[in-house]
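Milestone 3.1: sequence recovery, worked example.
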């Protein structure tokens, strides 16, 4: 069981999009909506936009003309995201336009965000370091813009039926999420808490909400793909798990295929300055 057996990243983002949409905290959109009044158009900077799932989800929940600025370091993903936004309109049918910016989103300054009314991100923070989070938070605060960061993993998962290896794999996976890559120590499941604390130190109020994935028989394909990646990362972190993982994987994937595997993956949403 290796991480190489999982889907290409763009395909993984497409597969997880419905679960992300179902998990995000709608009430945080209600909280931030008044902050967007008077902006025409509403300019939103989406960081780490991937294939555009956050923009598609949020654009349809806001009224009035919108201009989305999608930031990512992957030009191919940005092109996919822009194409996928064709035909997307606001909640009241107002037009939504899209612009893309390819580059290192952790190097954005307040000036880069100053034309925006809101900064967003989804499933991004866990891939950043503490220093990178500080830079992103500083840019948002100095620009005076609220930030809505959704679907950040917390490291907690629950599988049903339970298996003795679940907790062992969870611990190894979380260690993998906190690994050092090219000198960068990733925050992994600590990211949401670190981000909230960074805003709080700057005097910016933060509202937090749980945003768990709840995967059952209707999401069996996603549950199986998530499981492969989860176990593969754990085995990469702890090669001694490779042997026990073979039988464990067969059991779990058979349960998923039969619609008997339940998965809850805990995430956290946060709104800063709403």
């Amino acid at each position: 069981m290796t991480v190489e057996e999982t889907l290409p990243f763009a395909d993984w983002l497409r597969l997880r999009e419905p679960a992300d949409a179902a998990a995000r905290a709608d009430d945080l959109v209600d909280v931030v909506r008044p902050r967007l009044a008077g902006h025409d158009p509403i300019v939103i900077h989406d960081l780490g936009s991937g294939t555009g799932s956050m923009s598609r989800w949020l654009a349809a929940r806001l009224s009035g003309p919108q201009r989305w600025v999608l930031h990512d370091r992957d030009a191919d993903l940005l092109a996919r995201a822009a194409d996928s936004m064709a035909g997307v309109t606001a909640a009241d049918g107002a037009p939504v336009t899209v612009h893309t910016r390819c580059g290192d989103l952790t190097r954005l300054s307040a000036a880069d965000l100053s034309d925006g009314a809101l900064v967003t991100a989804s499933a991004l923070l866990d891939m950043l370091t503490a220093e990178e989070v500080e830079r992103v938070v500083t840019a948002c605060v100095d620009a005076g813009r609220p930030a809505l960061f959704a679907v950040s993993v917390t490291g907690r998962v629950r599988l049903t039926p339970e298996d003795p290896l679940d907790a062992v794999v969870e611990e190894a996976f979380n260690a993998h999420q906190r690994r050092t890559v090219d000198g960068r120590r990733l925050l992994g499941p600590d990211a949401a808490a670190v981000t909230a604390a960074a805003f709080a130190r700057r005097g910016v109020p933060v509202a937090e909400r749980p945003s768990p994935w709840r995967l059952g028989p209707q999401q069996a394909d996603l549950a199986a793909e998530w499981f492969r990646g989860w176990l593969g990362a754990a085995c990469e972190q702890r090669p001694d798990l490779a042997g026990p993982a073979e039988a464990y994987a067969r059991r779990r994937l058979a349960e998923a295929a039969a619609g008997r595997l339940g998965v809850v993956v805990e995430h956290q949403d946060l709104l800063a300055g709403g």
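The two ends are 43 Å apart (CA to CA). Residues 220-237 form the longest helix (18 residues).
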